Amino acid sequence: MAILVASRSPSLRQLRARCRFERGEVEEGMGDLHHVLQMRPGDTDPRVLISATTFYGLGDFDNGLAQIRKCLHSDPDSKVCKKLHKQQKLIQKTYTKAQGQLNKGQSTTAGRTLIGNAEEPGLVAKIREQVEELRQDGRIPAKARTRLYEQAVEMVCQAYSESNHREAQKYCDETLQHDSQSFWGLVHRAKVLLKKDELEAAIEALNEAAAARPDKQDKVNPILKKAQVALKHSKTKDYYKVLGVARDADERQIKSAYRKASKQYHPDKAAKQGVGKEQAEKKMASINEAYEVLSDPELRARFDSGDDPNSQERTNPFQGQPFPGGKPFMFQQQGGQANFKFHFGGGGGGPFGF
């Protein structure tokens, strides 16, 4: 009530500002300090608090620096104002540098700028150290958020996620703790879920990311399409799973997996393992079908884009043929003994002459 009567009392305004800071009402508290400066424009203490909280707490470089310049204008010899001005200028310069590196796709370089090394700490450590010191000195309210630090952590998340750094998960988890709608945090979460084949959850995370940053569709859409195609495959047939290879497997890995699977389900060996003739034939048919698609760059590209070359709507070149080349194994029974003869045709089927 007192401030309503004596609204132009600097001491009452400062007292209410402290109370508001204690309740976490940071912007309201700074509003009171602005009133104090209108009455006492040469007072540097409110100016320092407003500058530090605006710069580090709100992540607003321009207004934070504008306030500390006014502090220096009021008292050019102020050591506190000089120090804070120097720190803020260096932080702004490094932040802008890291942002530029990310914009150019230099994610590895940006990661070094943000994290640094044993000899020279990076941007994140410098912000954290300066914020801790300013809090201890009462120049940033204890309950004020530090959005500048949060933004820097999200930049690390982006840099490490794009460069597949082993610590990407650590920083992306942290950025999601700060902001559950962090764009880069959600994108990295989706990439992790995609690797785990948790496809619906990955798509949900990507849709959240797209809603949070509509201007970043170019970053979301390629991953979203990949997840949608994988989900479609999961509900039909997945040639990668048939051969037991990753989606980014190279030609050598695909050939190796094909040879291993073919040997395992070759009717001779399958029979010894208790696998029936019909089951072995079906398994071999699916193995050969998968290999024919994944070993052909054009067919594989179609499959990866969601178009199965062997879908029911198309002519299936393997229908009724468990082996490439259209030459199935021959079964003959003589004298009570089963004799198998295998003919792997030379029509461009399997690459291994069994």
TrEMBL record:
Subcellular compartments: Endoplasmic reticulum
Domain J: 238-307
UniProt cross-references to InterPro entries, sorted A to Z: DnaJ_C3_Co-chaperones, DnaJ_domain, J_dom_sf, TPR-like_helical_dom_sf
GO CC annotation: endoplasmic reticulum
One GO-annotated biological process of the protein: protein folding in endoplasmic reticulum
Any GO MF annotation of the entry: misfolded protein binding
UniProt KW Ribosomal protein keyword: no
The organism's place on the tree of life at top rank: Eukaryota
Ranges where the record places region Disordered: 258-279, 298-332
Annotated Low complexity bias: 317-332
Keywords: Endoplasmic reticulum, Signal
The name this protein goes by in its record: DnaJ and TPR domain protein
Species assigned in the record: Ophiocordyceps sinensis (strain Co18 / CGMCC 3.14243) (Yarsagumba caterpillar fungus)
Lineage: Eukaryota, Fungi, Dikarya, Ascomycota, Pezizomycotina
